[in-house]
Write a structure and sequence with these properties.
Length: 209
Amino acid sequence: MLSALLIFGYAAVFMVPVLSCRTKEYKTNDGQCCPMCNKGTVVQRDCTAYAGTRCRPCEMGTFMNQPNGLYNCFPCTACDTGHGLLVKQNCTATTDTVCDILNGYYCKGLTDSNRCSLTEKHSQCAAGQRIKEPGTSRSDTVCEDCQPGFFSKDGVSCTTWKVCSNTQIKVRGSSTSDVVCGRTSSQHYFVFLPFLLCSVAFTSLVTDF
């Protein structure tokens, strides 16, 4: 606090340092106590024996969210779309910017005020896997391998292998490709046999003539 002594008609000002200031007061660089500035403002000039603290409003792009004895406002947080963030609420003189998370990203780091400071793209499941749990704004995608008898080409969902008939040849599928069904050698034989008989009969007729 400041104290003043009147001597011979003149005001003699004695700056008396104090150990701590009262609530809603701040300590100056000289160790004196002055009234704090309100939210949205900061100190322009410390108080004197004749005048209280002079405060100035925060400029565009800055804010102050508490009573204070600071000389500069805080810079507003920038929500970088290139890092998976978008503006949910604009910065004001008394509140910081509120960022939200873009679709396809999740929060990987939080600030002391429990706000997202670092994001990362959701993982893409590989071929042979499926999405077990879709990614959210707070968690990454959870993938799992396709079970035997199933396959996945795009890493989204697993599809059961095709079922071949008993008369077909089956080329075994994999976790990334379906079963391939083909004709058996007996089918090729029965298709070729009528053609062979016709050829023999035609040849016989030509010989007879």
